[in-house]
Write a structure and sequence with these properties.
Number of strands: 8
CATH class: Alpha Beta
CATH topology: TIM Barrel
Distance between the termini: 28 Å
CATH superfamily: Alanine racemase
Largest sheet: 8 strands, parallel
Structural class: alpha/beta
CATH architecture: Alpha-Beta Barrel
Amino acid sequence: MSSIRINLNRLQERIKRACELAFRDPETVKLLAVSKTKPAQLVEQAIEAGQLDFGENYLQDALTKIPSFPGVTWHYIGAIQSNKTRDIAAYFDWVHTVSSVKVARRLDAQRSDDVDPLNVLLQVNVNKEQGKAGVREEDLLGLVKSLLPFKRIQLRGLMAIPQKTDDYTMQRTHFARLASLQKQVQQQCALPLFNELSMGMSADLEAAIVEGATWVRIGTDIFGERETP
């Protein structure tokens, strides 16, 4: 058995235990394998082990892998510059890091009518950290309302990378804030599909799952230490 299969099995068990403690169905939490900087052969090993959702931060690195693996669902989870939106719109199924009307408008305009709408999560800066990407929570509702007319993107929920802490209570506080914002937007804008929460990584996935995460983003614990892109 490959080390990646072992790692994936271990993570799925960890997710299952966390769901049991949170009285949640494990089927409601999906594992996103963060394959950034990792070679295609490691992605292939993960696919052989049953993993079909992969997250990429670096566009050029991702574009070398995506054509080789039809049937896989690709998530863009990196920073978005305007010159990247055309390829993101063309090659990815999900984007977790939208935080401006400008980027959303470009993704909508550049998404083909021949494929399903691009699933979009809005990144929120829940700790109001200087220099960190994401929309401020007080601007979130306005951003959502500005994006509602777009037809080739589908608003699906929220994403955050909270401030790092080993304090479990503080981890839960950060994730609970994002979950509360997601429910507010879903109710106020009548968006039944706005039900996804991309939050939680290796160090804090238990806290994220307790507070409602539907996607947990894991890289190193699957593929090993990251490499320089």
